[in-house]
């Protein structure tokens, strides 16, 4: 059960039952005396649990099922949720009565999962163009046909896409239009949706030099730059922390914390007293004890002199740190996305077999300096644009690695970026470069994995793809594998798996996702001859 969040007279939370792939979205009526939901089980007259959406029941009709939005109306009477039944990230929004669970009107089809309530009688949502770029934001009034919805804004610049946000007070909605270097924002007064969008921040070319937090005392007033602030201290040297939805006007900040050795934990931090209260820590089965593991921050120097931070975790009683331990190095370095050193329960399967796990932020290299591993046991892993990283280093220095796993990898860079009809291409020209220009074409050609496969020995390789993937078309990894099979001069294992019932993020069920991890781990263990006789691959 997730930590409940109070909204009006209800507590909302998710519940996961043993053996079920998906969650149940639930609520309970709150007591007027403000008693917390955590004591309800001790009260004989506790309000009953009301299941609003059982995702398990819905998923039975589909091979793939994902709910990526669950939005309750301000008056708690209605719920809008967005579901994807293919993995192609094209959603259908269903609007139901929160009590009777009956649909209140026809679903909104062919939309994104970005949806917010504009008061109790209307919704804002976004749609995609032919290359799956969120380019339009719409106002839908309940009780009307989707065909009559009004388009509030159309972003015609192919380098920009739209995002949708709501203020914690639910009085304002924000529509952000952004490219890789520029963003500008509109706002909508939810009490006057008929007035449409108004400019909050003007369009200014180029990005901010640093992350800045602004406070807006009232709509229409200038933004106030906030400097300074208070810090909450944490135990682990490397960790992941982010705010969780909290209550407007509350002095309590709710946040989630985890590290490479600490399961996800939810805290309430009193910003007046400084008191921090643990509300819940995710249960990890199998006798897990975080004190058995050590998480570290290490630094290595790249060939150009740049210091590269590494997040490291291993089991203290199994790792020798003499260069003989197996190591899985994970890397990703695109879109300013950080691979945060967060906890992952399935990773314990490797750690408890003596693996060291390392995240390179954001470039790898030099990890041998601390004798964590040798190239005979060094394994590398990257997904999506991280798969581009892995494909690139395999071509450059295949001798450094024993095994490599490329998940849904972006490996046919030049061909893809030359085609503006492929999803994500036009919005990525600012990130990767536009290969229609000579300078960028030859630079991208110099590292594109597909274009640099050559007759040489490669390590053992596992490549995966998703048939319905809108971000990296399955043809890219398939083409990469075909070229490797044609040119590589070794007899090492080369496997290609295309998941027919999913997209970019693999299967949707929680146990199905474990199967994907099991495939990756078993591949690595088999290559390293670490599967005991009583275990099967």
Task: Describe the 3D structure.
It is built from 8 helices and 29 strands. It is α+β, with helices and mostly antiparallel strands and 537 residues long. The chain has a domain at 382-412 and 449-532: Alpha/Beta hydrolase fold, catalytic domain (Rossmann fold), CATH 3.40.50.1820. The chain has an 8-stranded mixed β-sheet with strand order 22-23-25-24-26-27-28-29, sandwiched between helices. Strands 5-6-7-8-9-10-11 form a 7-stranded antiparallel β-sheet, with no helix packed on it. A 4-stranded antiparallel β-sheet has the order 1-2-3-4. It is globular, with a radius of gyration of 25 Å. 33% of the residues are buried. The model is unreliable at 364-368 (pLDDT under 50).
Describe the secondary-structure layout.
Blueprint lengths: L4 E3 L2 E6 L8 E6 L20 E5 H5 L6 E7 L5 E7 L6 E7 L10 E10 L4 E7 L5 E8 L8 E5 L6 E6 L5 E7 L4 E7 L8 E4 L11 E3 L8 E3 L13 E4 L8 E7 L6 E6 L5 E6 L11 E9 L5 E9 L11 E5 L16 H4 L4 E5 L17 E6 L1 H12 L6 E5 L5 H5 L7 H8 L5 H10 L12 E7 L8 H13 L6 E6 L10 H18 L10
Parallel strand pairs: 24-25, 24-26, 26-27, 27-28, 28-29
Antiparallel strand pairs: 1-2, 2-3, 3-4, 5-6, 6-7, 7-8, 8-9, 9-10, 10-11, 12-13, 13-14, 14-15, 16-17, 18-19, 19-20, 20-21, 22-23, 23-25
Organism: Chenopodium quinoa
InterPro entries: AB_hydrolase_fold (IPR029058), Pept_S9A_N (IPR023302), Peptidase_S9_cat (IPR001375), Peptidase_S9A (IPR002470), Serine_Peptidase_S9A (IPR051543)
Family: Belongs to the peptidase S9A family.
């Amino acid at each position: 059960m997730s930590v409940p969040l109070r909204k009006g007279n209800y507590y909302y939370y998710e519940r996961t039952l043993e053996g079920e792939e998906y969650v149940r979205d639930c609520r309970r009526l709150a007591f007027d005396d403000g008693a917390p939901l955590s004591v309800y089980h001790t009260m004989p007259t506790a309000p009953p649990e009301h299941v609003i959406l059982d995702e398990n029941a819905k998923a039975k009709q589909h091979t793939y099922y994902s709910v990526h939005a669950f939005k309750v109306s301000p008056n708690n009477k209605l719920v809008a949720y967005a579901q994807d039944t293919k993995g192609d990230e094209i959603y259908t929004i269903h609007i139901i009565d929160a009590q009777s669970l009956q649909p209140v009107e026809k679903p909104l089809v062919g939309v994104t999962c970005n949806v917010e309530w504009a008061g109790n009688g209307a919704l804002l949502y976004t749609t995609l163009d032919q290359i799956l770029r969120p380019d339009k934001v719409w106002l839908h009034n309940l009780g009307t046909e989707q065909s009559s919805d009004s388009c509030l804004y159309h972003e015609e610049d192919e380098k920009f896409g739209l995002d949708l946000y709501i203020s914690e007070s639910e009085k304002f909605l924000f529509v952000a239009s952004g490219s890789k270097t520029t963003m500008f924002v509109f706002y909508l007064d939810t009490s006057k949706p008929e007035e449409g969008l108004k400019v909050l921040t003007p369009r200014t070319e180029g990005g901010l030099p640093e992350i800045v937090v602004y406070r807006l005392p009232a709509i229409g007033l200038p933004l106030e730059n906030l400097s300074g602030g208070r810090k909450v201290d944490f135990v682990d040297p490397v960790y992941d922390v982010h705010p969780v939805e909290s209550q407007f006007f509350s002095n309590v900040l709710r946040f989630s914390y985890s590290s490479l050795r600490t399961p996800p934990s939810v805290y309430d931090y009193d910003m007046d007293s400084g008191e921090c209260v643990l509300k819940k820590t995710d249960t990890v089965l199998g006798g897990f004890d975080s004190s058995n593991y050590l998480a570290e921050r290490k630094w290595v120097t790249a060939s150009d002199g740049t210091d590269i931070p590494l997040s490291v975790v291993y089991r203290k009683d199994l790792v020798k740190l003499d260069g003989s331990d197996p190591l899985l190095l994970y890397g990703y370095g695109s879109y300013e996305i950080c691979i945060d050193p967060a906890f992952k329960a399935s990773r314990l399967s490797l750690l408890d077999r003596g693996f060291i796990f390392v995240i390179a932020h954001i470039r790898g290299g030099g990890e041998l300096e601390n004798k964590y591993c040798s190239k005979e046991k060094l394994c590398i892993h990257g997904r999506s644009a991280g798969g581009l990283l892995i494909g690139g280093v395999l071509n450059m220095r295949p001798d450094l690695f024993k095994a490599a796993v490329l998940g849904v990898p972006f490996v046919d860079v030049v061909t893809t970026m030359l085609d503006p009809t492929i999803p994500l291409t036009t919005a990525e020209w600012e990130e990767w470069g536009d290969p229609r220009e000579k300078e960028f074409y030859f630079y991208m050609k110099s590292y594109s994995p597909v274009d640099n496969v050559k007759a040489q020995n490669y390590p053992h390789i596992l490549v995966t793809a998703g048939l319905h993937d809108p971000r990296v078309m399955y043809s890219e990894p398939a083409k990469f594998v075909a070229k490797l099979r044609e040119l590589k001069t070794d007899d090492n294992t080369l496997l290609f798996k295309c998941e027919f019932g999913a997209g970019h993020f693999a299967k949707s069920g929680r146990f199905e996702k474990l199967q994907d991890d099991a495939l990756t781990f078993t591949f690595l263990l088999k290559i390293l001859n670490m599967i005991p006789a009583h275990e099967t691959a």
